[in-house]
Amino acid sequence: MAHLEVDLVAADRKVWSGAASMLSAPAAEGEIGILPGHAPVLAVLQPGPVRITPVGEAAVRVAVGAGFLSVDHDQVTVVVDSAEGSVVQA
Fold first, then answer.
1. Where in or outside the cell is it found (predicted)?
2. C-alpha to C-alpha distance for 32 and 18, rounded to whole angstroms
3. What's the domain range around 71?
């Protein structure tokens, strides 16, 4: 089964990294959802929740500040200026 390799990093730390089946984030133009096989994209993020569905684990929700999201060949990189608290299992 195809999956995404996700890296979510804040200015001061790596917040979450791993394999996921889906990710959604608050893009400047509206909510963006990423599934395996997504076309390459670069999006500006606004503050809000990033939701990750890890492979074989409970969903993860992290409140983030502004930043950007990059997708290329099922590799998703989310870089934000801040992440509120630690990872919350949703």
1. Cell membrane
2. 19
3. 4-89
